[in-house]
């Protein structure tokens, strides 16, 4: 498979695989927003996915009318209580009736409670669930994956290793044969007073010993020498990851959240995101995200589901 280097290429790839194998089915929690339904209809009309919509049926129909979307091709599960919407949507996935769990206008806490529900949720044993933003930024020849900027607040070393494994699987689904993983910190040298550098060095050692397979992992790196080859050369850093990173492992949620939002607001980019490490792909988008962002997130989930 050729490496996917932009989110436009990701859309075309998702269309291609579903044209060959059929659409994926996506269960949406609280689907009563015109912008959301616009994105769903774009995905449905190109054959990428079919949808089951949970939520207040009257509100879904009103939003569809506003978006000029014909609901004849959609299944609706009428639920008026928001916490129950998440449970109803996730049951479709855990019960084998749908392939992907997607957040609509539901509040994030209710959505995640559905995902983590012990009886009908999507957690797999003790596996760490993580979030990944992926960006195509003007001037870069590849997609950059940032994890975890939205789910795990202060991951320990074992959780960071799991986060890397989750993100590597996504990058491989995008055709990155051997993802280069940069463990980020404020500096590029190990400093005992800076825990992020100690974790980075440990993760690099784990990678060298085959404990984190399928990738090349190194660190610590400051951001500049992780993504800019000239910066890495200037600082005398010799590493196959230096300046060429595909995956940026952030030390904590503050660093990741600020980085992801800086990319969104300070650069010309396309951005989408998924929750990884669960029994099925999970689309966690903001209620304020554009229909395009929701569409590319659907394409990513479809690609990951096919890869699984």
UniProtKB/TrEMBL annotation:
Domain Phosphate acetyl/butaryl transferase: 19-85, 88-301
Sequence similarity: Belongs to the phosphate acetyltransferase and butyryltransferase family.
Keyword list, A-Z: Acyltransferase, Transferase
Protein name, as recorded: Phosphotransacetylase
Organism of this sequence: Jonquetella anthropi DSM 22815
Gene Ontology molecular function: any one: acyltransferase activity
InterPro entries per UniProt: P_Ac_Bu_trans, Phos_Acetyltrans/Butyryltrans, PTA_PTB
UniProt-listed NCBIfam families: PRK08190.1 (NF006045)
């Amino acid at each position: 498979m050729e490496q996917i280097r932009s989110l436009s290429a990701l859309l075309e790839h998702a269309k291609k695989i579903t044209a060959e194998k059929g659409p994926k089915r996506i269960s949406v929690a609280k689907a009563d927003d015109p912008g959301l339904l616009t994105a769903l209809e774009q995905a449905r009309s190109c054959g990428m996915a079919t949808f089951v919509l949970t939520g207040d049926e009257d509100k879904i129909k009103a939003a569809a009318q506003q978006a000029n979307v014909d609901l004849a091709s959609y299944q609706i599960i009428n639920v008026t209580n928001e916490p129950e919407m998440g449970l109803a949507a996730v049951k479709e996935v855990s019960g084998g009736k749908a392939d992907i769990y997607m957040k609509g206008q539901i509040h994030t806490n209710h959505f995640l409670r559905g995902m983590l529900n012990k009886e009908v949720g999507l957690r797999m044993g003790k596996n760490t669930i993580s979030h990944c933003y992926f960006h195509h930024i003007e001037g870069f020849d590849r997609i950059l994956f940032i994890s975890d900027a939205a789910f795990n607040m202060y991951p320990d070393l074992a959780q960071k290793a799991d986060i890397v494994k989750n993100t590597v699987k996504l990058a491989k689904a995008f055709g990155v044969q051997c993802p280069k993983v940069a463990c980020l910190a404020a500096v590029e040298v190990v400093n005992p007073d800076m825990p992020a550098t100690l974790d980075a060095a440990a993760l690099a050692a784990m990678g060298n010993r085959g404990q984190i397979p399928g990738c090349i992992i190194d660190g610590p790196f400051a951001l500049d020498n992780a993504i800019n080859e000239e910066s890495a050369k200037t600082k005398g850093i010799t590493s196959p990851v230096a300046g060429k990173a595909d995956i940026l492992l952030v030390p904590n949620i503050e660093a990741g959240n600020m980085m992801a939002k800086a990319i969104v607001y300070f650069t010309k980019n396309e951005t989408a995101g998924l929750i990884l490490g669960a029994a099925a792909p999970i689309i966690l988008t903001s209620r304020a995200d554009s229909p395009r962002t929701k569409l590319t997130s659907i394409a990513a989930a479809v690609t990951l589901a096919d890869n699984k």
